[in-house]
Amino acid sequence: MNQQTSTGPGTSSVVIEPELKYYRVRTEIETILSGLEEGDAVPSERELAARFTVARETVRQALRDLLVEGRIERRGRGTVVASPKLVQPLSIRSYTEGALSAGRVPSRKVVTFERMSADDGLATELGIEVGDSVVHLERVLFADGEKIGLESTFLPDSRFGEMLDAFDATTSLYAAIRSIGVVFASATERIETVLASPREATLVESTTSMPMLLLHRTSVDPDGVPIERVRSLYRGDRIAFLTTLRE
């Protein structure tokens, strides 16, 4: 495609850039992927560069885009067609409930289960005093055996300590909270895009250059009393969120 220049009375020249070479290559790779099944091997960078007569860096950039979008994934030393992203509804439900509703098998691995003192920010969000005891539960989240996120939950020890002392941290926390009669009435949630720290990337088997979806949630009961403060970090290549908007 050649560059074109558009001019008009009283205007300066505008250069219409040619289609990026890597984007053309990406489109060609997408055509290849459409003919493959989940788990099938993707041709190597060397093969693709030779097929499209481009530099390997051009192929690498196209593959990087598809990796971020979750179309492909690294497996060992190779690249394969990825499974579909887990689509989670934005609602007052646990990760377990959301994954099950999507037909996936949820599981968790405990990283941290401790008591700590609330700082100013945590005390405000949980409606407690600075220095009060808080239970911190950090877990890696899995879907069908694949690591997709890292969740940190903070709960007032005075309200949930006894329940948590007997809690199996590999099971649903929301189910345990509801079992003692606590009702989730509403939640405030903020979503943003971030990059993982080296520790977080290692825990979810990702990289520090892979975009992550960060969710901050504070849930309250029908009386407006805070139940939890949650920080959930999800792999942007393995999960998406869905919500229904009504006027």
TrEMBL record:
<dbReference type="Pfam" id="PF07702">
    <property type="entry name" value="UTRA"/>
</dbReference>
<protein>
    <submittedName>
        <fullName>GntR family transcriptional regulator</fullName>
    </submittedName>
</protein>
<dbReference type="InterPro" id="IPR011663">
    <property type="entry name" value="UTRA"/>
</dbReference>
<dbReference type="GO" id="GO:0003677">
    <property type="term" value="F:DNA binding"/>
</dbReference>
<dbReference type="InterPro" id="IPR028978">
    <property type="entry name" value="Chorismate_lyase_/UTRA_dom_sf"/>
</dbReference>
<dbReference type="InterPro" id="IPR036388">
    <property type="entry name" value="WH-like_DNA-bd_sf"/>
</dbReference>
<keyword id="KW-0805">Transcription regulation</keyword>
<dbReference type="Pfam" id="PF00392">
    <property type="entry name" value="GntR"/>
</dbReference>
<dbReference type="InterPro" id="IPR036390">
    <property type="entry name" value="WH_DNA-bd_sf"/>
</dbReference>
<keyword id="KW-0238">DNA-binding</keyword>
<dbReference type="GO" id="GO:0003700">
    <property type="term" value="F:DNA-binding transcription factor activity"/>
</dbReference>
<dbReference type="InterPro" id="IPR000524">
    <property type="entry name" value="Tscrpt_reg_HTH_GntR"/>
</dbReference>
<dbReference type="InterPro" id="IPR050679">
    <property type="entry name" value="Bact_HTH_transcr_reg"/>
</dbReference>
<keyword id="KW-0804">Transcription</keyword>
<dbReference type="GO" id="GO:0045892">
    <property type="term" value="P:negative regulation of DNA-templated transcription"/>
</dbReference>
<feature type="domain" description="HTH gntR-type">
    <location>
        <begin position="17"/>
        <end position="84"/>
    </location>
</feature>
